[in-house]
Design goal:
The structure holds 2 protein chains of 2 kinds. Chain A contains no helices and 11 strands. By secondary structure, chain A is mostly beta strands. Helices cover about 0% and strands about 50% of the residues of chain B. In chain B, the strands form 2 sheets. In chain B, strands 2, 4, 5, 6, 9, 10 and 11 form a 7-stranded mixed β-sheet that branches. A 4-stranded antiparallel β-sheet of chain B has the order 1-3-8-7, with no helix packed on it. In chain B, β4 and β5 form a beta hairpin. The chains are: A mainly beta, B mainly beta.
Chain lengths: ~110, ~110
């Protein structure tokens, strides 16, 4: 069964600090992995998308890494801001089709 | 400018009373999706359209139906809402279904069933 597990479930950090969110998956055959940011009451917004051959991809203060061998990904947020408070969802595609496997997300709260 | 627009943002309906949620897009994307997201859970795909081709997920209840009259609009019809159907309903679009086709989500409609 294709699964996507994210950790931690929730995280509280101080403004300005860095943090790393984890995503482990069992989806096979792997096609691509996406990180989304979902603000409360809003739809998810794509941050990064990585294919098998990509190890790292950055989007501003967000840097995603992928280890396709161990089936792990991380999302690193640098110099956090209050606006980073959101749920971060890892989504893994098994093939190039429409079937996406969603993690339950990590809820991040950045406090002053 | 919003590219995937869902209306209404909040919808309250009575148990068993049919309700329709709407989604429109200005991206001219081929694929439109409806997801159901309950509190603290991952979005669950209900169905999607690739152009006019409708694809229903195997575990989507018959209570849920969809219409796509044209490229820009897609509707979610819940024929007889139950209390368990209370959730956030997310519409999403993509140009295709390939690697370089990320989903663009609307802001969702939060459905309450009383």
């Amino acid at each position: 069964k294709n699964q996507v597990e994210q950790s931690p479930q929730s995280l509280i950090i101080l403004e300005g600090k860095n943090c790393t969110l984890q995503c482990n998956y069992t989806v096979s055959p792997f096609s691509n992995l996406r990180w989304y940011k979902q603000d409360t009451g809003r739809g998810p917004v794509s941050l990064t998308i990585m294919t098998f051959s990509e190890n790292t991809k950055s989007n501003g203060r967000y840097t995603a890494t992928l280890d396709a061998d161990t089936k792990q990904s991380s999302l690193h947020i640098t110099a956090s801001q209050l606006s980073d408070s959101a749920s971060y969802i890892c989504v893994v595609s098994a093939n190039s089709g429409y079937a996406l496997n969603f993690g339950k997300g990590t809820s991040l709260l950045v406090t002053p | 400018d919003a590219m995937v627009i869902q209306n209404p943002r909040y919808q309250v309906t009575q148990f068993g009373k049919p309700v329709t949620l709407s989604c429109s897009q200005t991206l001219n994307h081929n694929v439109m999706y409806w997801y159901q997201q309950k509190s603290s859970q991952a979005p669950k795909l209900l169905f999607h359209y690739y152009d006019k081709d409708f694809n229903n997920e195997a575990d989507t209840p018959d209570n849920f139906q969809s219409r796509r009259p044209n490229t820009s609009f897609c509707f979610l019809d819940i024929r007889s809402p139950g209390l368990g159907d209370a959730a956030m309903y997310l519409c999403a679009t993509s140009r295709g279904t390939g690697v370089l086709s990320p989903l663009h989500f609307g802001n969702g409609t939060r459905l309450t069933v009383t």
